Amino acid sequence: MTLWPKREPESRGEPEIPHDAPLDSLRYVVLDTELTSLEHRTNRLLSVGAVRMQGASIRLGEQFYRMVNPEVEIPAESVVIHQIRSDDVKGAESTSKILDELNHFIRGTVLVGHCAHIDLKILRKEMTQTGHTLENPAIDTARVHHWLLRQGRYSEDLTLQLEKLDLETVAKAYGLNPENAHHALADAFLTAQVWQKMLVTLQNKGIISLKKLLKIGGAK
Amino acid sequence: MASRPLSDSVVSDNVVSFLRSIPPFQFLSLPELSKLTSQMTLDFFPKDTVILHAGHPASESLYVIQKGAVKLALRSQVGKQLTLDMRSEGEIFGLLSILGKDLARLDVTAAEDTLCYCIPAEQMQHLISSNAEVANYLLRTSLTRYMDRSLQELRTQTGLMGDTERLLYSLSVSDVPGSATLLCQQNTTIREAAQMLARSKATCVFVVNEKSEAVGIVTDRDFAEKVAAQALSLELPVTDIMSKPVVAVESSDRLFHALLAMVSRNIHHVLVTQQGRPASVLTAHDLMVLQGKSPLNVVRFIESQSTVQDLAAAQTRISGLVPLLLREGAKASHVTRVLAEVNDRLIAKILQLGEGRLGAAPVPYCWVVLGSEGRREQTFKTDQDNALIHSDLADEQAREYFTQLAAFAQDALSTCGYPLCPGNYMASNSRWRQPLRNWIHYFDTWITEAELHGTEDALIFFDMRPVAGDFALFQSLMTQTRQQLKDAGLFKSVLACVATTHKPPVGFFRSFVLERSGEHRNQLDLKTYGTGPIVNAARVFAVDAGIEQTNTADRLSALASNAGEHANLFSELHEAFEFLTLLRLECQLRQVREGQTLSNFIAPDSLTHLQRSLLKEAFRTVARAQASVEDTFRTAIWSTLGR
After folding, report:
1. In whole angstroms, what is the distance from residue A108 CA to residue A114 CA?
2. Per-residue model confidence (pLDDT) at position B275
3. How many domains does chain A have?
């Protein structure tokens, strides 16, 4: 696998993504993170996985996966979920270096994540420590799915459906087979496949520009 | 990090293991596969997306279907779409477009929501030029699968390929550079003809009439055997030694037909005509050059044996033909026809050996085969289903001769691996070894006194086909029979009943109705519910229309070209029959490989998604055909059941 190459000479400033650009002309980075816990006050970034897309095409060679040494003990109840133990990340590179690489990987792209606000929140928190910034527009596939469901025909179980928006349920709704859940790269890839199909549905519903998309599914 | 089950290549690993399971990527090493994966994309095409447009710039990728199915179609000049092929999970498309480098040749449309791995054309070209196994596989499979129907369009592409084994099924006669024909007039003398032959490199001369039609052929063997051996005058006209009629194929026919003509008549020269005019000559040698192994080889082997024991070795060669033909992408009906021709040669050879031992037959006889053999639809080994018609002139002594000949043939066929017929429909049974007048009587009884149960057993006789001996006996029998069939409403109604007995399992919720118990629980009987009803439906319609052919595919295309009200149904039925037969062949081929007993059962679970949907489609067509049998022969059926 080709990991994203070492940093190229940094050009200044975030390239602006025109908000009226058609959705299938944009470059996306679909990402997912694993955390030490869900307690935002104390939690730390543990791993980040990301896949690049050109329009709806998933570029299998352009993947990003790093584990981070959180420098705190990883609670047992979370090890059970993501299977990353403190020992596994002892040799990992510093958070600062990894965020450097991540920033480079996502340059000029629209970020996509399932429940992306959680990922953005931890990334921003870590970035404040290391002096990075995160300016990319971001899309939450859970929100988009919620919007799409409500566009559909009213049905008895709609309320039920609207309550269950986890990645596994949504992926299944798109005919995908979730595997290796809670691995940041596997989940990012699964989300990318969901996003690939959503793009078609969205364009059929007349959502063709980033501006409209951010309105219905933007994440902050 | 070694302790972690999932590494940073969790996604790529999945792709690699998918690719590893499908040819030709299975030929690549793991590092090669990983490298390839890193250059791929995963793309999604919703149902009905046109992925490649005919006439547009060539594809930029090779597509490997991860999930879903696509339809490959040609657009005719009037803009009509002709579906050539369906591709499903684990199959590829876009190869021709990549290789052609100019324009896409076909429309490729997503038949359902489809996910594809896309390999950039550049990488694919690199792979093809650097890995012979990959190249070989790709070129063979993707070129044979639909060349059949798209030959005209794709012919220009074949110039790119080096592999020859597939050509028999994909090329037309005109694609092979045959030798120029030598022609002479009917009044040419033997001497002049011999001189013509000596001056050229040709091995035969065709004799033409005033209308430039070939009426005979003289080969170098004719000079040796006829002229030299019989000390004929060299000043006699060449017509005295020529063989006739001339076996010819049109230049637009597929090479397969030329092969079939050679195999069935055991000849080595076929005239190639262009709109009926002699154009060139194709020899067995030309075909052998193209085709390392060939059915012709097997026939030659059969011909060269002089004892039954030696002949037995032919059986393994015959069954070896099936995978060969299937691998080369032959249509199912072609496979069964080649098998039938080869088996016919074997029977003829056995009878020849029998006559060698017992002396020449005292009166003319005709050896006929029945049932699936008569229809040229055998798959793998089949039972001996045969009978013997001899001249009415046979006396007691002659009858004794045929008793011995039939017994000899039965033993020889057993030795060659053909099991005895459990129903005892064999010429060794005196009931099925009768003079012509008795056979006429048999058919008369079956037709006029038709009864549902009695006739069902007699049906195999209505697919009778002559194989060796004097075919005139068979012809007389058929002339008589056809006369009687003209208004045999009762008999046709019985045929109609038989054709509608076994309803195909289109079942509830469009799922399959499977065997509920026994050895084949949860399996599907392809013969009883699939090919069988088609054979029976084709028979009743063919008998009704006075069509002479016995082969089901032939019957159906004759019926379709009659352009009656069911013309469309017949073409669809034809396709369904091809598909079901192919499925049977592939299923039995697997059973042979795994050393299982041959059966016609298939487990739907073992089929790909696409095969399952085609199977349902085929069953629906069968159901429609049965409905129209009932419709056409309704009144007659009622009166039969009411009796």
Report:
1. 20
2. 80
3. 1
Cβ-based contacts of B120 with chain A (< 8 Å): none
Which residues of chain A make contact with B11, given a CB cutoff of 8 A? Answer: 51, 60, 63, 185-186, 189
Residue B4 inside a domain? The answer is no
- B1 lies in some domain: no
* B113 interfaces chain A, CB cutoff of 8 Å: yes
Quick one: DSSP state of residue B213? -
pLDDT confidence of residue B164: 37
Interchain pair B42, A193: CB under 8 A: yes
Residue B151 tokens read as 């030959």
Whether residue B500 sits in one domain with residue B471: no
| Contact across the interface for B8 and A3, Cβ inside 8 Å | yes
pLDDT digits (tens, 9 = 90+) for B367-381: 999 988 899 888 776
Report percent pLDDT > 90 for chain A: 45
Given this model, what pLDDT does residue B173 score? 78
Q: Rounded distance, CA A37 to CA A79, Å?
A: 9
| pLDDT category of residue A8 using cuts at 50, 70 and 90 | very low
Q: Does A78 touch chain B (CB under 8 A)?
A: no
CB B73 within 8 A of CB B84: yes
Whether B63 and B116 have beta carbons less than 8 Å apart is answered as yes
Using CA atoms, how far apart are residues B257 and A2, in angstroms rounded to an integer? Answer: 52
Q: Running DSSP on this structure, what letter comes out for residue B377?
A: -
Chain A's closest residue to B2, CA to CA, is A88
pLDDT digits 0-9 by tens, A44-74 = 898 999 999 999 999 998 999 998 888 888 8
CB-based contact (8 Å) between A2 and chain B? yes
Residues of chain B with pLDDT under 50: 1-6, 77-78, 143-166, 291-293, 507-511, 642-643
To the nearest 10 degrees (0 to 180), the angle between helices B609-632 and B634-642 is 80
Write down the pLDDT at residue B133.
Answer: 75
Residue of chain A with shortest Cα separation from B49: A200
Q: Which of A29-38, A76-85, A151-160, B50-59 comes out lowest in average pLDDT? A: A151-160
Locate the chain B residue with the closest alpha carbon to A79.
B4
- pLDDT: is B559 or A16 the higher one? B559
Which residue among B3, B9, B41 sits closest to A59, beta carbon to beta carbon? B41
Q: Does B31 touch chain A (CB under 8 A)?
A: no
CA angle B76, B80, B84 (to 5 degrees): 70
CATH number at residue A186: 3.30.420.10
Provide the token pair at B362: 């005292």
Q: Using CA atoms, how far apart are residues B161 and B256, in angstroms rounded to an integer?
A: 19
Q: Which residues contact B552 (CB under 8 A, 6 or more apart)?
A: B375, B377, B534, B535, B538, B539, B577
Whether B203 and B127 share a structural domain: no
How far away is chain A from the Cα of B157, in angstroms, using its nearest Cα?
30
Q: Does A56 touch chain B (CB under 8 A)?
A: yes
Q: Which residues of A touch B1 (CB under 8 A)?
A: 67, 88, 91
- Structure-token match 């020889």, residue found: B412
Q: For an interface test with B, which of A47, A60, A93 has the most B Cβ atoms less than 10 Å from its Cβ?
A: A60
Of A91, A180, A196, the CB nearest to B10: A180
B44 has a chain A CB within 8 A of its CB: yes
- Here the CATH number for the domain that contains residue B53 is 2.60.120.10
A36 CA to chain B: closest CA distance, Å?
17
Rounded to the nearest 10°, the torsion over CA B595, B347, B351, B388 is 110
pLDDT at B290: 57
- Co-location of B321 and B343 in the same domain: yes
Contact residues for A142 (Cβ-Cβ < 8 A; gap 6+): A114, A115, A116, A165, A167, A170
- Any CB–CB contact under 8 A between A115 and chain B? no
pLDDT recorded at residue B282: 85
